[in-house]
Write a structure and sequence with these properties.
By secondary structure, this protein is mainly alpha-helical. The protein has a single domain, classed as Multidrug-efflux Transporter Regulator, Chain: A, Domain 2. 49% of the residues lie in helices and 5% in strands. It contains 6 helices and 3 strands, in the order βααββαααα. It has a 3-stranded antiparallel sheet. The protein is globular and about 55 Å long. The relative contact order is 0.13.
């Protein structure tokens, strides 16, 4: 499985020539989506490394983080690659599915893209609720 998230931070640093701090920063900005072990260590996939190299290249070209975020959309789930996901900016058809889910725990999050979608759906619901009141 080429997209399995099994690559530790040490190897990612060596392969991308980025610092741990830079990698954590891109993770905080939701530009990459590593999984977490039970000990909260980040584990990366080959796709994550490709994204980091693309981010590094775009920064070198002078792009700001906001522009980089526009250029590289996050994957919808850990099973879909960015290339397969051409409709990310369109409204998600499965939004209603996430609204019924209860979020019992947020930490550690192994599939952050799904969590982000769930939270976005809930924000939309709250906003509609407030507008109707």
């Amino acid at each position: 499985m080429p997209n399995a998230k099994k690559i530790p931070m040490r190897e990612v640093r060596e392969r991308t020539d980025l610092t741990s701090r830079q990698i954590r920063y891109y993770d905080q900005l939701n530009l990459i989506f590593p999984e977490r072990t039970s000990g909260n260590q980040r584990l990366f996939s080959e796709d994550d490394i490709k994204r980091l190299l693309k981010i590094k290249e775009l920064i070198k070209q002078g792009y700001a983080i906001d522009k980089i975020r526009e250029k590289i959309k996050p994957p919808l789930s850990k099973n879909k690659s960015i290339k397969e996901n051409k409709t990310y900016t369109e409204p998600m058809k499965e939004e209603k599915y996430f609204r019924g889910d209860r979020l019992n725990s947020l930490y550690p999050v192994s599939d952050r893209s799904t969590l982000i979608r769930k939270l976005d759906a809930r924000k939309k619901d709250k906003k509609k609720e407030e507008e109707s009141n």
